[in-house]
Design goal:
The protein is α+β, with helices and mostly antiparallel strands. The chain has one domain. 37% of the residues lie in helices and 27% in strands. The protein contains five helices and seven strands. A hairpin with a 5-residue loop joins strand 2 and strand 3. Helix 2 runs antiparallel to helix 3.
Length: 213
């Protein structure tokens, strides 16, 4: 039988447990929303059919398309960029996610980048995956605007730089590297890079480093 003292202590602990559950759920929803949004976007899709998927307060329209940048208290950051055609169809989607796990005084980090780029819709016909990545990074990091836009584009640009540095005979990174020096500190080099082409001719690109690989 619970003593009165323990019973009162249990009652006091209930709000704290409830707050922890709510907080964990909020973090899960935020991070899960970013992954769900990326997966929801499809190459060739009309943007108006999915424009409400991303959180409005963290999303901006830009000349190349749309960008979004969200972070949560667990140390996770998601940057999403969608490139649009002139008739507002999705030509490419790119996402960089940075994770953190805290173990007392130790912090482990990880970065994951993934992208799908249709060179035809992106008006980059004749360009291979590496030249396409270089062109996309150059275009994004040259965009001027508020900090959210610069940071979102910086995450994507830095991730592309790491792929170029990792890929054999990729050559010079181009002007992007001088524009993303701060973001490069958060996107470590030496990870695993993968580039493929699907049956549609869409470039499928991934980069991963650290936890979450």
């Amino acid at each position: 039988m619970t003593t009165p003292v323990l019973h009162r202590a249990a009652r006091r602990a209930e709000p704290a447990r409830g707050a922890s559950i709510i907080l964990a759920a909020a973090c899960c929803l935020l991070s899960g929303c970013s992954n769900w949004a990326y997966d929801r976007f499809q190459i060739g899709q009309e943007w108006k059919t999915v424009e409400r998927v991303l959180p409005a307060d963290a999303t901006r329209r830009t000349a190349p398309g749309v960008c979004c940048l969200v972070s949560d208290i667990t140390g996770r950051t998601d940057a999403i960029v969608v490139l649009l055609t002139r008739d507002q169809r999705i030509a490419a989607k790119l996402q960089t996610t940075r994770f953190e796990r805290h173990y007392g005084f130790k912090v482990e980090t990880g970065v994951r980048f993934r992208a799908e780029i249709d060179p035809h819709l992106a008006r980059l016909e004749g360009s291979g995956p590496i030249d396409t990545l270089r062109a996309v990074a150059d275009e994004l990091t040259a965009v001027e605007g508020e900090k959210l836009i610069r940071d979102a584009h910086g995450w994507i640009g830095a991730s592309i730089i790491r792929i170029l540095q990792r890929w054999p005979h990729a050559g010079d990174e181009g002007p992007t590297i001088s524009r993303v020096s701060e973001a490069l500190e958060r996107v470590p080099g030496g990870g695993t890079a993968r580039i493929g082409i699907d049956q549609r001719g869409v470039y499928m690109i991934e980069y991963a480093h650290g936890i979450g690989r």
